[in-house]
User: Fold this.
Amino acid sequence: MENLEPSIAFKAGQEAKRLGIKLENSAVRNLRVGSKQYEDFISGFDFKCVDGGNCGCGGYCEKCVLSQPLNFKDAEMNEFYLQDSRSYVGNDLLFWAKNGKGYTTDLRLAEVYSKDIAERMHQAREADISWPKDYIDNNADFDQYIDALA
Assistant:
């Protein structure tokens, strides 16, 4: 299984937990609430290895990382993208495009749904996964690839 190296903040959260430091007394006090470092620290502090720590990965293997719940805040959960999880384009997720015009990997062209509509669409087809817009927008990688022959 692929080894996914976590962030320094995630490791620091794990170490604080291992040392028995209470969360309110930990380094999390120095991090801006809602920042990626803050969320990673909390995730590391709350982390539980899927295999009870027996897989030997230290919580970094793909199985352990993917088993952890994502930390979505209620305030961020009023707009959603809808992913069609049946296929990908390279490493990119496919999202429902605006106005029902197929699918897209470009978030600028993706439809934004209310929570109610996104939940109903997921219930109608489990392969359609709703993602909080703020979460995707804050974590998406917008690399541009330019064809040298163009």
